[in-house]
Amino acid sequence: MLFVDLYLWKSARALVNEIYKIMGSCKDYSFKDQLQRAAISIMNNIAEGCNSGSNSKYINFLKIARGSCAEVDSMLYLCEDFKYCTCDERCNIQKEINKISKGCLTLINILKTKETK
User: Fold this and answer.
1) pLDDT averages per 10-residue partition of the chain, 117 residues
2) Is residue 20 part of a domain?
3) 3 vs 24, 54, 107, 117, CA distance in Å?
4) At what angle do helices 55-81 and 29-50 cross, to 10 degrees?
5) Could you tell me the pTM of the whole model?
6) Which of 3, 41, 74, 114 is deepest in the core (most CB within 10 A)?
């Protein structure tokens, strides 16, 4: 399967676009860069894992993607605090992050099951 066919990767791509949208006018370039890089990391680690060649490597990439989900999730609270987004925007994006993180965990468990067979 190609990574571009994965619903999980498509969701992560949509997340990146949402992050770029809310950060478009942000002048705090280091904060903006950190948040955007963390969001991109989610998408890219899903893709890298899919093409890594082994389930154990794929699992590792998915774990890194989950860590990046947590980073974006955490930074979104600051986005709201700094008025880069509204409470509703933060909550909506965090719902998507939660789905992506859970999707990564589900895929990790599936891959672990395949490793033991």
Assistant:
1) 92 98 95 98 97 95 98 98 96 98 97 81
2) no
3) 27, 14, 13, 23
4) 160
5) 0.94
6) 41
Residue 18, domain member (yes or no): no
Distance CA 103, CA 115 (A): 18
In the structure encoding, which two tokens stand for residue 109, read together? 């468990």
Alpha-carbon 38 to chain mean position: 7
Q: How many Å apart are CA 7 and CA 103, to the nearest integer? A: 9
Nearest 5°: the CA angle 49, 12, 34 is 95
What is the structure's pLDDT at 117?
Answer: 61
Contact partners, residue 93, CB within 8 Å, separation at least 6 = 15, 18, 19, 22, 72, 76, 85
The CATH number of whichever domain residue 62 belongs to comes to: 1.20.1440.60
